[in-house]
Each structure stands twice: as C-alpha cells, then as structure tokens.
Amino acid sequence: MKNKILQSVFGLLVVFSSCGTKDTGQQTQSSLPKIEPLYITEKVIHDTDDPAIWINKADPEKSLIIGTDKDKDGALYVFDLKGKIMDSLVVRGLQRPNNVDVSYGLSFGGEEIDFAVTGERLTSKLRFFKLPGMLEIQEGGIEVYLGELQPDYRDLMGVAVYYDKDNGKHYVIAGRKNGPTDGTYLWQYLIKTDQGQLELELVRKFGQYSGNKEIEAIAVDNELGYIYYSDEGVGVRKYYADPEKGNDELALFATEGFTLDHEGISIYKHEDGTGYILVSDQEANFFHVFPREGSSENPHLHTLIAKLPMSTVSSDGSEVINFNINPEFPKGLFVAMSDDKTFQIYDWRDLENYIMKSK
C-alpha cells in the first residue's frame, strides 16, 4: 500500500511540474492522483456513517476505531488499527445509530472513565458506553429533544462531545434531521453524574439553520473552545462551545466550491493552536482543508488551503488525531467513512504532504 502512496506523491509532483503552479484546489478530480489508505476496515452489515477514534494512552497500539452501522437493526462496530472487527466489543441492536464521538476522564462511580456516545435516530436517545469494554453506562440510553412535535425534529443525527478543561465538565451537542430556523437547531446537554447515574441537563439551544437540508456533522475543538457543524449545501458554521459565552455565530465558511453536501468535519490539532479543519465534499470524493487557527488578523476567517482527492466513496463522517500511535502512524491517523460499508484508515503524513504542496 505504501508503494501506491509513493506513486501518488510522485504523480502529484508531475502534475505540479507540468502546470508550473501550485495546486489551488481548482483541478478536476480526474487530474489528481487519489490519496490511498493504509488499511480498509472489514465490512459492516448495513451502512457505515461516522467513525471515532479512542486513544489508549497506556498502550497506543491498542487504540480503537469505533464506527456506526446506520440501520434500524444497527450497531457500533469496533475495529483495531488494521481495520479488523473486534467482535466481542461490537454493540448490536441499536436503532439507526448515526454519529458517534468519544471523550476522556468523566468522573463516574468513583473513577475517571473514557466513553463513547451515539444517538439512536428512531428512539431519540443518546446511548453511552464505557471504553474500552463498550459496556453501557446508562441502560437503554437517555431521551433528548423532549417536547418537540414537528416532523423529524426528534430524529437524532449528529453527536459531539465538548470537554471544558477549565471546569472539568462534559457536554453533548445533538443535531437532528430537521429543526427550526430561529437559531435553536442544536441542543447542548451537560452530563451529570452526581447521583451515581448518568443524567443530562439541557443548558442551551443554539445554531442557525438554513432550512435547506439538515445538520448532521458536528465537531468540537476542545482546546480552542469552538463548535463547528455542516449546514448541508450552505457551509460550515462556528460557535463558542462554552454555553456561557453566548450564541452568536462566529463564522460561516466553506460556502463555495462544494458539489452538493457539506458532510463530515474533523480537526487536526497542533499544540500551538494551529492545525487543519477537514470537511467532506461528499459527492466529489474530496476533503476541503481550512486553517484551524483562522488568519493572522482574524481567528474566525477560515480560507481554503487545499482539496484532498481521497479514495473514499461518497464519504460522510470522518475523524483525525494527532498522536504517535505506532510506527505506521507516528503523526496520527485519519479515518473516513466510505459508501461501501467500510471505513478507510490513512497515515496522516500522506494527507499532510499533500496539504503542504498545495500551500
């Protein structure tokens, strides 16, 4: 597989030398060599949608990839770093789980635990699982969007976790298939564990929505304190993650150059606050890349850096980490859903090399 990647990089250099200019993201997909994954996961039964990555900090090589199988008889699949299904950890019998996210260090039952959370669209419930064993924390889950009566207003889609390092609080941000256009599309819940069980407290409703399609992809930058979400067909919207900082929209970017849908969002983070925001251009099989830190004049000005031609097919969800997992992934890995019942696993360096040549 590495030989394929080296061939792709060589081919890219040929493209640059022949045209005499840097890649500005305007070339057609057919003219660019695709970035190849190191591994492709074994297939799920129904329909992959969104992945998350859990880092085993004690033994990074035992880190896990968790992905949704989106169906009325759906599941959370768990894979090793080579894409093999770890059948003993798979959670089955979930009712159309759409997105999944993970977080670390939740105080529960007298210990600090890591957890995964997914949303069941058909029950309007969030389901929580302790990592790495994938044991359910709150049996049957917790219902959200209570009181909503309009069609699709309770159909859970996007799920993301915000951890506020300053106060040690964990929040879940939930998106849905449809919702109001009055700036209350997303609901944010505080995770409470005071009584020895998991509870959710609604702390705010926020987020503009165009009304065109739906909001599914949500990503949180814990360190910088921002929430990003895809208003499909319109762009990516940015808000403060801390509910105390208000509900003003900070940015709307990625409004041009997408074929149809804006989908999965993932954030590659450097310790100095720089990095990249990657957004799936689903129908074109590209990922558009924007600066995490914004510009030198405006932290909320996110201008296109590059378009990455990926081997994924109609990719929806994605996740990326900056962590030395093992010699194959010394600078982290990128995982993206592909519309063939799989997830593709990439060495981050292959994406980074492409980005650097595009600048």
Automatic annotation (TrEMBL):
Transmembrane regions listed in the UniProt entry: none
Domain BPP: 25-355
InterPro entries (alphabetical): 6-blade_b-propeller_TolB-like, B-propeller_Phytase
Sample GO molecular function, one term: inositol hexakisphosphate 3-phosphatase activity
Identification of the protein by name: 3-phytase
